[in-house]
Amino acid sequence: MWKYGFASVAGTAHVRTSVPVQDACRAEIICDARGNEILLAVAADGAGSAAQAHVGSALACDLFVAEVKAHFSGSGEWQPLADGFIERWIEKFQRHVSDLAIISELKPQDFACTLLAAVIGGDEAAYFQLGDGAIVEAHDTDDDRYSCVCWPQQGEYANTTSFLTDADAAARAFRQLKSGAVNELALFTDGIQNLVLDYRSQSAHSPFFAPLFAWLRPRPAGYSAELSAALTAYLNSEKINARTDDDKTLLLATRRQ
């Protein structure tokens, strides 16, 4: 049984200017048509320059969860997640944003955000990414060694990235369907990526993740309000805020005993 928790907190730069937190994240356990348990995890980071970035990131998370649920309530096959799912999903997201932009008399770019998403079954995993932030995984045989599924996407210029509202978003999106049992998972936005990734070796900094997962493993199955509260406090701590003033999201999930 999965145990999981998550937190999104406003960066100090946004607190000073009274800007709402522009990150969003969701996690949920569902069952496919055969009753097999599936973990859905998604995070989105609203573009700092977008007026309705917080709306865009929340929409991205909610829409992703809804579409994956609809997929598994139907055929429940994994291969379609690698064959056109993300392209169709981005098209649907962009239609929603276009409607919101018309109603609000804004531009679709005012809802710009990134996407990180994972769908984990018994021995299959599907991953999606557009923009910065990253996803880290581990297997039972990894002995507290964590590997990056995807690396933060850099734009053409320094400190830029791709967003779901971009015209070429579908072409730039990362998608991967993997076999094998994933037993621990972390998603995080760019607010902490410099703290938890080793850029020299392009790898995850395992000493950051190992104690967090060790704490989570003995907890009861399902959503952990205790972990989520602890992550909120940690991401708001002086230790973290001294190193980044951006919004921060961290989602952790384990089914390792």
What's a concise summary of this model?
By secondary structure, the protein is an alpha+beta fold. 32% of the residues lie in helices and 28% in strands.
Keywords:
257 residues; alpha+beta; 32% helix; 28% strand; globular
Describe this structure in words.
The protein is α+β, with helices and mostly antiparallel strands and 257 residues long. 32% of the residues lie in helices and 28% in strands. The protein contains eight helices and 13 strands. Strand 4 (115-120) and strand 5 (124-130) form a beta hairpin. The longest helix is centred in the N-terminal third of the chain and has 21 residues, at 53-73. It is globular, with a radius of gyration of 17 Å. 42% of the residues are buried.
**What is the rounded distance between the termini?**
9 Å
Given as residue ranges, the uncertain stretches (5+ residues, pLDDT < 50) are none
Number of strands: 13
Would you list the SSEs in sequence order as H and E? EHEEHHEEEEHEEHEEHEHHE
Strands of the biggest beta sheet: in what spatial order?
7-6-9-13-1-12
Number of helices: 8
The level of helicity is 25-40%
Sum up the overall morphology in one term: globular
Strand content: 25-35%
Structural class by helix and strand composition: alpha+beta
Main sheet overview: 6 strands, mixed
Radius of gyration: 17 Å
Mean pLDDT: 93
Question: Layout of helices and strands, plus pairs?
Answer:
Layout: E1 3-9, H1 12-16, E2 23-31, E3 37-45, H2 53-73, H3 85-104, E4 115-120, E5 124-130, E6 134-138, E7 147-150, H4 169-172, E8 174-179, E9 184-188, H5 190-196, E10 197-198, E11 203-204, H6 206-216, E12 222-223, H7 225-235, H8 238-241, E13 248-254
Parallel strand pairs: 1-12
Antiparallel strand pairs: 1-13, 2-3, 3-4, 4-5, 5-8, 6-7, 6-9, 9-13, 10-11
